[in-house]
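Lab notebook, bench 4. Still working through the backlog of constructs that have no structural model yet. Next entry is a single chain of 447 residues. Request: give me the structure tokens for it.
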Amino acid sequence: MRTRLFVALLAPALLVTATPKAAAQTSLQVPLQFDFINPGAKNLGLGGAFAGLADDATATFANPGGLTQLGASEVSAELRGFALRTPFLQGGRLSGPVTNQGFDTVQGPSFGRSDSSAAGLGFVAGAYVAPSRRWVVAGYRHELIRIDQAFQSLGVFQKSPDELTSRRQSPQSLDREMTVTTYGGSVAYAVRRAVSIGASLAVHDFSFATLARRFDTDGFLGGPRYDIEFGRSTQAGDDVAVTPTVGLMIGEGVPDASAPLRRRVKVGLVYRHGPSFQYTTVDGGDPAREQRFRVPHTLAAGASLRLSPQFVLSAEVTHVRYSRIREDYVVDQARASGREADFTIEDGTELHVGGQYAMPGRRLIPRLRAGLWIDPDHTVQFRPSRAGPDVFGRLFDEAMTASTSQGATQVHGAAGIGLTLHRRFELNAGADISRDQVRVSTSLIVR
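Model written out:
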């Protein structure tokens, strides 16, 4: 299972008029991107189509039902790096003619990109295979979420047809850090020759800190005055949650091309329960609010087919309940407007396909991998249930519609290679590229 959660969120508030100090609040734009990607360079190179394969120690996280396929005990470690960009509404004029003075020079919305990157030890696991090979016990550490983001906006200009003057949102900045480190244990049992079940219990350590600030401007058309702060909002939390994962693997997947089709196919099913964490929001002098951030549940079904001893195909369908993010997190951001019902996040279904071709006659027995997967749009959407009742309401609708317009379905291309360094050592490398992100991975397996 591989999931990516992208959230571009605007929490509503008042707009700044031609006399900006008369307004007490601005819109709080919060671009936020989450990536929940299964560990392992092999999984990455196959485009995430791994639930129906799950044949190395990363199965302890991806599909614990696949652990009984291990021929020997093994240890796996992965180094992973990523670079991603998240769009946000940076400035421009949404309505009314531009004045071509100061910062009012762009007709239409202007979007910026919040860039972030990280690299490090993403995953480490160990799996013990019992002498009977019917039982496997495993443990792992996985970096589930790692975010370090910052952005600054200039404030958009707007003008209602029935007003003589324009309005401007206050410039704002945001700094955010979020990490979720997961420690888990798994056990798998071969019920019969071609049927295995597995389960994991994971402890998630959550840390979250956000600081959002809004600022004055140097005159109505001028630049931000970062020395004059209008207000701030913070989100902070440190919490621990425990969740289960259950997996099932059916089939033999024998490499003999002359064997019946049913013996060359494997099917995997996995359900992962998303953790929930508590955090605190403070807006200016308002009382603190206790909220919960809910990681989506996922349900994945995959299959793999051995076409020959050298060639295997895999596919996976993953349903992600992104709507869990809305229950507290999005609603809390939208509360100031009284329009919480107009902000939604749709659940999504990802499609993954991948293939591997082994070259046994070559030195190091290279295994070439390639994959493709489709990540449906699951950004926060603003759908007005009614038109704004006044000037503020109409301008609010205009700003929210523009700010949430950047969501799109993304197609990921992936490739990788596996090398047998020794009968006990395997080295894998993989990469995944889409419009807004690049992810690379190297993993070593010791048997």
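Notes after review: The chain has one domain: 2-359+373-410. The first helix runs from residue 41 to 45. Flag for follow-up if needed.
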